[in-house]
């Protein structure tokens, strides 16, 4: 009997846990792997996407994605407080800061990223913090107890979530952004302008095109922030949320290939320059790009699992002549839908209309604080991007047009301006069977329909069966639409069969 393959996963964030979950599901029948998960934190995986809910009353247990019992049931060995400090590629071992040594046949680096703190003089003061982990949240909460004013440096997605946290803690909150607009990656200038106005109306003061030069002792507050141009702002605490950097130090120290600006270089199978070491999630650099959302990380985890399975089974397959070609990672869609301080924001595809020949259509309802933009190709028959601020009710519809390359059969403006013509809203029946309904877990329409056929007749059971809408949750409405459509088809089939049954003649 062949010995089990030893798979060691370094990092137990959302992506590292997803890898474990995927490998366990493939390992149940053959039990061909011995899985070890190493967490540098003092806890197992939790939902970083929902961190801000901690300040609405959710506990660390509420955010947990797994627990000791689950990993025990899965026969996954796990260790917390186990930050890996050494990789010996010759002996295929890793060592933690506590001196623990683990042997591997396959090593998976899911180390994620860390907050970028700009090199501002004074940044190391006691109440200058970051927003990244549950422990960070506890530190922010403790600092807020003796504070009246809080500042977030960074006006991106995470920065606005951090600002929301400070506001919920009762602080007079400011956001400092070096760029001329908020969320410059996800939304265009028009959407950024409206977003700034809406957040300002909620009581958060937003400063754009501002560069912090120094943090010094304050007069009325703990600190004084000195900006380029001479302006200042006093605050009691500062939270840095100015972007992330890949946590690639292990690759850097132990001679795995890195990108020019960081990130562990991977191929289409998520292998690094060492064929027995994989990298997934925010630490990985694919095609010179780092994906900062959880859905691409989940896709990488699935690809890595498939390739490890293929590699493990290769000898058996060669002897039988069977082919087991693993899927390849080919990039990921970076569309996202979220709610920041109650403000709905959606971004799809080429939101900035940078593609050659791109055409943009705009709709703005200033009294109701709504901004919508769609971007089409030069023929105006394919949707390639969109921005939604203040109302994301069209998001699911627009995303399906984009993801599935569906041709527009009505005027493009009708997608965001219903009064301009027929509302071009897609139903589940309009989508192809291979349409991706849940981007986080890559769940297709066909998979959901199969789940319904197997007896899952409501959202909860389909979620449990397929994982659809259990990631960011943004696709829940569309998942329900597919379920309803599948149930209706099943009901019609039953009716047709019943009507076509031959009538029995009396004896």
Automatic annotation (TrEMBL):
Residues 335-399 form the NADH-rubredoxin oxidoreductase C-terminal domain. Residues 436-484 form the BFD-like [2Fe-2S]-binding domain. SUPFAM superfamilies: FAD/NAD(P)-binding domain. Its cofactor is siroheme; FAD; [4Fe-4S] cluster. InterPro entries: BFD-like_2Fe2S-bd_dom (IPR007419), BFD-like_2Fe2S-bd_dom_sf (IPR041854), FAD/NAD-bd_sf (IPR036188), FAD/NAD-binding_dom (IPR023753), FAD/NAD-linked_Rdtase_dimer_sf (IPR016156), NasD-like (IPR052034), Rubredoxin_C (IPR041575). It holds the Pfam family Rubredoxin_C. Keywords: FAD, Flavoprotein, Heme, Iron, Iron-sulfur, Metal-binding, Oxidoreductase. Residues 6-295 form the FAD/NAD(P)-binding domain. It comes from the Bacteria. Pathway: Nitrogen metabolism; nitrate reduction (assimilation). Belongs to the nitrite and sulfite reductase 4Fe-4S domain family. This is FAD/NAD(P)-binding oxidoreductase. It comes from Pseudoalteromonas fuliginea.
């Amino acid at each position: 009997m062949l010995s089990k393959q030893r798979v060691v996963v370094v990092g137990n964030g959302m992506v590292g846990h997803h890898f474990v979950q995927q490998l366990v599901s493939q390992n149940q029948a053959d039990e061909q792997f011995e899985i070890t998960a190493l967490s540098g934190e003092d806890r197992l995986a939790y939902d970083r996407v929902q961190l801000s809910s901690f300040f609405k009353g959710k506990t660390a247990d509420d955010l947990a994605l797994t627990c000791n019992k689950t990993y025990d049931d899965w026969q996954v060995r796990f260790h917390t407080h186990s930050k890996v400090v050494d990789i010996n590629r010759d002996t295929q071992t890793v060592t933690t800061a506590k001196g623990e040594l683990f042997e591997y046949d396959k090593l998976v680096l899911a180390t994620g990223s860390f907050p970028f703190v700009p090199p501002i003089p004074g940044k190391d003061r006691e109440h200058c913090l970051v927003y990244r982990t549950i422990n960070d949240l506890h530190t922010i909460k403790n600092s807020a107890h003796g504070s009246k004013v809080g500042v977030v440096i960074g006006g991106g997605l995470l920065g606005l979530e951090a600002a929301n946290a400070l506001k919920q803690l009762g602080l007079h909150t400011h956001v400092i952004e070096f760029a001329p607009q908020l969320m410059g990656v996800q939304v265009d200038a028009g959407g950024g302008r409206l977003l700034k106005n809406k957040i300002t109306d909620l009581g958060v003061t937003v400063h754009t095109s501002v560069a912090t030069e120094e943090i010094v002792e304050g007069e009325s507050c703990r600190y004084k922030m000195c900006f380029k141009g001479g302006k200042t702002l006093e605050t009691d605490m500062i939270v840095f949320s100015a972007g992330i950097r890949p946590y690639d130090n292990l690759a850097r120290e132990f001679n795995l290939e890195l990108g020019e600006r960081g990130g562990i270089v991977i191929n289409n199978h998520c292998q690094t320059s060492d064929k027995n070491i994989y990298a997934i999630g925010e630490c990985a650099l694919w095609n010179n790009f780092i994906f900062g959302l959880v859905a691409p990380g989940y896709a990488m985890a699935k690809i890595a699992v498939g390739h490890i399975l293929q590699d493990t089974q290769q000898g058996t397959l060669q002897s039988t002549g069977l082919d087991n070609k693993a899927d390849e990672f080919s990039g990921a869609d970076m569309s996202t839908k979220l709610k920041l301080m109650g403000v709905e924001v959606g971004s799809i595809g080429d939101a900035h209309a940078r593609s050659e020949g791109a055409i943009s259509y705009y709709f703005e309802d200033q009294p109701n604080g709504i901004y919508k933009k769609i971007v089409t190709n030069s023929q105006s028959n394919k949707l390639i991007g969109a921005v939604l601020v203040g109302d994301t009710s069209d998001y699911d519809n627009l995303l399906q047009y984009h993801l599935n390359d569906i041709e527009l059969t009505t005027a493009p403006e009708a997608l965001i301006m219903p009064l301009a013509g027929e509302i071009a809203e897609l139903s589940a029946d309009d989508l192809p069977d291979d349409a991706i309904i849940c981007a986080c877990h890559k769940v297709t329409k066909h998979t959901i329909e199969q789940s319904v056929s197997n007896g899952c007749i409501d959202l909860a059971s389909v979620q449990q069966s397929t994982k659809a809408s259990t990631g960011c949750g943004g696709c829940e409405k569309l998942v329900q639409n597919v379920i309803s459509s599948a149930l209706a088809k099943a009901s019609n089939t039953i009716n047709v069969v019943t009507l076509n049954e031959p009538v029995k003649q009396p004896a």
